[in-house]
Design a protein that fits this description.
The protein is of the alpha+beta class. It contains seven helices and ten strands. The protein is elongated.
């Protein structure tokens, strides 16, 4: 105990002459005792206790030898503790990861089932609302026309929301196997899908030569379409310019979609990728709040990451990476 308290080796040459010595009932013949604290990185881990039946058994050389041995034992004990702590941490992290994966799978399955099963009753509601709008428009008064229009618009937004939620839930569960994919063709298809919006806004869209990557082509088209569509939606009064490029960087392809739109305040740079998070009202900018969350999910399925750099009033640059696995 004194060795532990003082953190210094304690040598008792004859325990019979030491008044504070407490005999060990398991070793009643003890006459000499050497106690050396086991210390590693300033932490007391225990005490190395050596006893002998003869008095004055340990010399100073013995004390020095056992003191060195105690240092090695302390390091071994510390390493064992660190290893066990790391093992427990890794086991807990693995358990949390598996629980999170199960939870995500359950949520994705719930979102798929819920959105899929909601489509049919919503189709019926929308059909009858549109029937009311056509058959009774102008016959029930101005207020009635307005109320029916609100209901029709709400049903249309709900339909768009369900379709986007269904797409979001399918990213991991119903994606296609990765295959060599020419991003120039992907961009061409995405731009074709946005033909009407491009014509209406007179957007100037340019791009550098894009690489071939290992990817799900359908999801990449959705990714480019959402990012470019976002740039078109959040344009400023200035003539819209959008530029797409890609560079190889640290074993990845770094893609960028740059625009000169209204920009995003820095504090919202992460929030915009959270599902259902919107920075503007539906009246200002229509949408479901799923588009960028879908982009993030697609990029993460491809083992990449996505982020935005933006200046309010000057525009935004959306970056995302895809591993260069064809190299």
């Amino acid at each position: 105990a004194r060795a532990a308290q003082t953190r210094q080796p304690m040598l008792v040459n004859d325990v019979l002459l030491e008044s504070v010595f407490l005999p060990n009932p398991l070793l009643p013949e003890t006459r000499t005792e050497l106690a050396i604290p086991l210390i590693a990185s300033g932490t007391l881990l225990g005490v190395l206790d050596l006893q002998d039946n003869e008095p004055e058994r340990f010399s100073q050389a013995d004390v020095d030898t056992f003191n060195t041995l105690a240092g090695h034992i302390a390091m071994v004990l510390q390493n064992a503790r660190l290893f066990e702590a790391q093992r427990q941490t890794e086991a807990a992290l693995l358990a949390q990861t598996r629980a999170l994966e199960r939870s995500n799978q359950e949520l994705e399955q719930f979102a798929y089932v819920a959105s899929h099963d909601l489509q049919e009753p919503l189709r019926m509601i929308t059909s009858y609302l549109q029937l009311l709008e056509r058959r009774y428009h102008g016959k029930l008064g101005k207020d009635a026309d307005e109320f029916i229009q609100y209901a029709v618009d709400g049903a249309k937004r709900m339909k768009a929301l369900i379709e986007d939620l269904l797409t979001y839930s399918r990213v991991n569960t119903r994606g296609q196997p990765f295959a060599p994919t020419d991003c120039n063709e992907v961009l061409e298809q995405a731009l074709a899908n946005l033909h009407v919006a491009r014509e209406e806004t007179k957007a100037t869209i340019t791009h550098d030569p894009l690489p071939v990557v290992l990817a799900d082509k359908t999801q990449l088209i959705q990714l480019f379409q959402n990012l470019i569509g976002n740039a078109i939606k959040y344009r400023s009064e200035a003539p819209l310019r959008i530029h797409i490029s890609a560079t190889r960087q640290n074993g990845n392809w770094l893609f960028s979609v740059e625009d000169n739109g209204i920009g995003i305040e820095p504090q919202f740079a992460e929030r915009i990728f959270v599902i259902f998070q919107r920075l503007h009202t539906v009246q200002e900018y229509p949408g479901t709040g799923i588009g960028l969350a879908l982009c993030k999910k697609i990029v993460e399925r491809h083992n990449g990451r996505i982020w935005v750099e933006s200046t309010v009033g000057q525009g935004s640059v959306f970056y995302f990476t895809i591993p260069d696995k064809l190299k």
